[in-house]
Structures are given as structure tokens and as C-alpha cells.
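Q: Convert this sequence to C-alpha cells.
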Amino acid sequence: MKIYTKILGVFVLSAAALSAQASVVTSLPGGTALVIPATHQTGFFGPATLAPGVTFSSSQPSAYGYTGTYGFNLNGTWSGTPMIGLDRGTGTFVLSFASGISGFLGELNWTTGNSANASIGIYDAANNLLESLTLESGGINQVAPGFYGFSRATNDIASIHFNEEYIGVRNILIVEGGSDVPEPASLALMALGLAGCAVARKKSAQK
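A:
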């Protein structure tokens, strides 16, 4: 029975490792461009369909498809390329995916000096935080404005949250491929099933 207990332990540990596989990336080879429409809207909450299967929504007025000059104080300005960004110093806007993705990358910029800290985070379909990156804290950049995102081995990124400051994103890439690895709960159940079979076999042999 000990050997099957060990097998169960290995399955559970493997499941935990799989659930934690997320990396912050600054490039995304093989990514597909997610085109932001040039709608030039401000004060926009959504929800809105950004692309097939991709929805935008915001807790605060936002710039959506904005192509004019947008300032990020010490981090410079953007113009020309359509962007999405908070039009307030606090709040969150979200990109949601009807089908999970395994990778995201975007050109990010944000202001510094407001009361909240700029960050981005990825969530699964159950709204569990998978990984996050703090962009600025206490008015100080933790990373330079530029391309940042996340990559995972599985297609379980259901939404991306952009939080606080006048945070903006443009030039988005996503990866829809990846392994459909069983969820940790499924792996654990499989291990329990194997252990149960072992017990039944042992009892049968003793008769």
C-alpha cells in the first residue's frame, strides 16, 4: 500500500506544480496580434467586444481605442496607435477571454504618484489569481514601461486585470495554443482511483 500512497503524493505534487506554472515575459514568440479598434472613445466603461471571444470592461471611465495624445506624466506620452487605458488614477479594466489562452503580451504604460500601485494580473475561469506583476509602487517604477505579459503551459488564462494609475495597453499579442493538461483536482482523483484499485487487488489476493 505504501507504494500507492507515494504515487498519490506524486500526483498531488505534480498537480500543484502545474497550477503554479506561470512566467512573466517580455516577448511572446508565435503570438497573434489582437487588434484594438480605433474608436477614439473616452469615458467608456463597456462591456464591449474587442475581438471575437474577447471582451473589455472597466470599473472606471476608460480610454478605448484612443489614438490621440495620452499622457503618463514621468513615463511620457502615447499617440497614434489605438490603446486602452484607465481615464482615472484608480480602478481596474479587464480583458476577458471566452476560451482560455496560454500567453499574453502587451505594451504597457502607467502614471506614478497616485495613491494606488499599478499592476497587472492573470486569472483563471474561477477568478483565481494565477500570477501578477507590480509595475509601480509608492510612486516608483518597479519595471520600465514596455512590453510585459505572462506565459503558461496550459490554456487557463480567462482574464487579465489592469489595475490602478492611468494604466494603458496597446500592441497586444495572445497565444491560444498550449497543452490541455488535466486540472489538479482531476489528477488527484485519478491518483485516488489508482490507490483504491490497489487496495481492492490486495484484499482479493488475501482471500
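Residues 3-19, 180-203 have pLDDT under 50 and may be disordered.
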